[in-house]
Amino acid sequence: MSALAAFATARCEQAWDVLGTVLDPEVPALSVRDLGIVRDVIDHGEALEIVLTPTYSGCPATEVIEHDVLAAIAKADLGPAHVTLRRAPAWTTDWISADGRRKLSEYGIAPPGPAAPDGAVPIRFFGRKADAIACPRCGSLHTERLSAFGSTACKAMYRCISCREPFEHFKPL
Predict the structure, then answer these.
(1) 50-60 pLDDT per residue, tens
(2) What number of other Cβ atoms are within 10 A of residue 8's Cβ?
(3) Domain stops at, among 91, 123, 143
(4) How many domains does the chain have?
(5) Pairing mode of beta strands 48-52, 38-43
């Protein structure tokens, strides 16, 4: 490997590490890397390209995330950078890292189950009766959905009947 290629690889690895510290503005228990919205880091020599896939196309936090990503890269002195938004393939909760799922649960948000078993793309119809979701506080499956939407469109509000605590569930997408 040439010295230039080694430098580019090291710079990309440093950028990935830095992106692991940039918190999602809507779920500050997770970094944008944990959330799986950082798709790639490409070293173009003069500048780094950070490729992001928003959780959904109308996500109101996209501009804040772009700003925070670029500010973190600049603070780490990794050189100039720009963000490219890649909307296809669409983000899925399957991209949340195992560490991210653990952090969600510790934060009090029930992590999503698999969105697409074996790569299939599911069509989901939600009625009034919801699946039993384990309470992130006590682990009980004796829970009920209070609202299909929580603080953001990607979460639902639940209540644990056992410990009486409300919690959000990150819906599989």
Answers:
(1) 999 998 878 88
(2) 17
(3) 91
(4) 2
(5) antiparallel
Q: Is residue 137 a part of any domain in this protein?
A: yes
Sheet strand arrangement including 155-160: 109-110, 166-170, 155-160, 143-147
Closest C-alpha to 130, from 159, 105, 89: 159
Selection from 107, 161, 108, 105 nearest residue 132 by Cα: 161
State pLDDT tens for residues 117-171: 665 555 555 554 567 899 999 999 999 999 988 888 888 999 999 999 999 998 8
Kindly give, in sequence order, each residue whose CB lies less than 8 Å from that of residue 165, ignoring residues fewer than 6 positions away. 135, 137, 138, 159
Cα separation, 51 vs 15, whole angstroms = 12
What is the distance between the alpha carbons of residues 87 and 3, in angstroms, rounded to a whole number? 34
38 and 72 within one domain: yes
Identify the domain containing residue 63 by its residue range: 3-91
Contact 94, 35 (CB under 8 A): no
